[in-house]
Design a protein that fits this description.
The protein is of the alpha+beta class. The protein is 53% helix and 11% strand. It contains 18 helices and 13 strands. The longest helix is centred in the middle third of the chain and has 32 residues.
């Protein structure tokens, strides 16, 4: 009798869950969608296979966009995501009325119970008055005139990178490794006046920890059931440890500043001044923003730097033109175009997510309340730029102004990345130093057919290079 009752309870629960899932998907029945891979998992199995095969799911998403149009929906288990690739849809997502609020990323706020960026972190706060207050307070720290005062620190880090490359001249060098080390040094020194070594963590160790953190966040974002599955325990523990260490670094930098020199000009100095004028800005919130700027500044900048050097190695004429511009002391407009073209093809933020707070129209489509809506800069860069979209051509940025809705490495609208100018200054400083001192070449045996060759990225929260960044550097006399 008890067994029969238990069986009936289980069957009833399954039928109830199935009916809820069916009704949930019916709410999005007016959107085009690919065939469901499985009733319970939705499109997850096909997306997972694509990610395992290609390192990301964007080739699959490109195919779906070409087949179903600029608006379609996909399901990860019970979670829908409406994808907008049209200008009207992207505008309503990011610009109209201040743009939609961000999805609250639990992997960034409290990673499986451990504070990472907190709910007040500028990167992760969904919006509203708290975010606006924080943004207004921190905007002066990213003013171009203020950032120019940080240039000597950036040039010092570039000098360290040049010495590391010089030691391996003529050899095959994994420039992505050097790019990550340089990015950590820049954000630690330029932003917060410390070196990771003095806090007890060598640069290479910190790089590995940030990679662990991004790996954990990626798995949590891709699979809603990741947090419950015992197979993910090792990934979760490594990511939690990385988050703990990053917060330790933030507290170390804050303590050192208060015990020592207080006249530095950097992001931490500005944060302390904000705290002196605003009681709501606590030490924990300063550390929240330290972690935010550290992981965002290190990972995305390193990725773009490695992709840029890889593209320069495959386009000798572009590299020589950059070198002439630098040596003649002209404005670095062509170098900036090279970096922009790299970010068009290899955008570090390849998925942008927002959420609806009520039933509303986006791009002419009715979207239910509490929906995740997405746009895909990686796919935009390959489908919205004409017949030569796959070609690496920096001149396209010299002759035309791209649509801000189809070019989103730093977003657009009110939530445009606050660190965009900082990142571009850092990238131009390091790339110009490398090009001035070295000729960048592909190692012998590498293919030389540009994008169709071995430059390949994979997704782990951001798009990072997995091949094509082993290069050869020849010192120029």
């Amino acid at each position: 009798m008890i067994s029969l009752l238990l069986l009936c309870t289980i069957v009833g629960a399954v039928l109830y869950a199935a009916s809820l899932l069916y009704l949930q998907r019916q709410r999005y029945g007016h959107f085009p969608r690919p065939p469901i891979s499985g009733f319970w998992a939705g499109h997850y199995p096909e997306i997972k296979r694509a990610a395992d095969r290609d390192g990301h799911m964007f080739n699959l998403y490109t195919k779906w966009t070409q087949r179903y149009g600029d608006v379609w929906v996909r399901f990860l288990y019970w979670k829908p995501g409406v994808v907008f690739m049209s200008e009207a849809g992207i505008r309503d997502m990011l610009v109209t009325g201040g743009g939609l609020p961000k999805m609250q990323n639990g992997a960034l706020t409290y990673f499986f119970g451990q504070r990472l960026t907190g709910y007040g972190g500028l990167l992760n706060h969904v919006g509203g008055e708290v975010w606006q207050r924080k943004r207004r307070a921190l905007n002066p720290a990213f003013h171009p005139q203020y950032l120019r005062s940080l240039l000597p620190n950036m040039e010092s880090v570039a000098g360290q990178l040049i010495e590391e490359v010089r030691q391996e001249c003529g050899l095959q060098v994994q420039c992505y490794t050097l790019a990550k080390r340089a990015a950590v040094r820049v954000i630690a020194c330029t932003g917060f006046g410390i070196t990771t070594e003095e806090a007890g963590y060598p640069v290479g160790v910190v790089v590995g920890m940030v990679e662990d953190l991004f790996s954990g966040m990626y798995h949590a974002a891709l699979n809603p059931a990741f947090g419950w599955h015992p197979s993910g325990r090792g990934v979760k523990n490594a990511a939690r440890n990385a988050g703990r260490v990053l917060r330790e670094l933030g507290h170390f930098a804050l303590k050192k500043r208060r015990e020592g020199c207080c006249d530095k000009v950097d992001l931490l100095a500005h944060s302390i001044r904000i705290q002196e004028e605003n009681s709501w800005y606590t030490d924990e919130e300063i550390v929240d923003d330290f972690v935010t700027f550290f992981i965002a500044g290190m990972e995305t900048t390193a990725n773009v730097l490695a992709f840029t050097l890889a593209q320069l190695s495959r386009h000798e004429g572009v590299q020589e033109r950059v070198r002439e511009e630098i040596e003649e002391g002209r404005t670095t407009s062509y170098l900036e175009s090279v970096i922009k073209e790299t970010m068009r093809l290899h955008p570090p933020g390849s998925i942008l997510r927002r959420c609806t707070t009520r039933d509303m129209k986006l791009g002419g489509w009715d979207v239910p309340a509490d929906s995740m809506v997405l746009t895909l800069p990686w796919v935009l860069g390959r489908t919205k730029w004409g017949p030569d979209s796959l070609n690496f051509n920096p001149d396209r940025f010299m002759t035309t102004s791209p649509s801000p809705l189809y070019y989103l490495p730093f977003l657009t609208g009110p939530r445009r990345c606050i660190g965009a100018t900082f990142a571009m200054l850092e990238l131009k400083t390091i790339v110009s130093a490398v090009v001035r001192h070295f000729s960048i070449c592909q190692p012998l045996g590498e293919e030389e057919d540009g994008l169709a060759g071995p430059i390949r990225g994979a997704l782990k929260m951001t798009l990072y290079p997995v091949s094509g960044t082993v290069l050869s550097f020849k010192e120029r006399l």
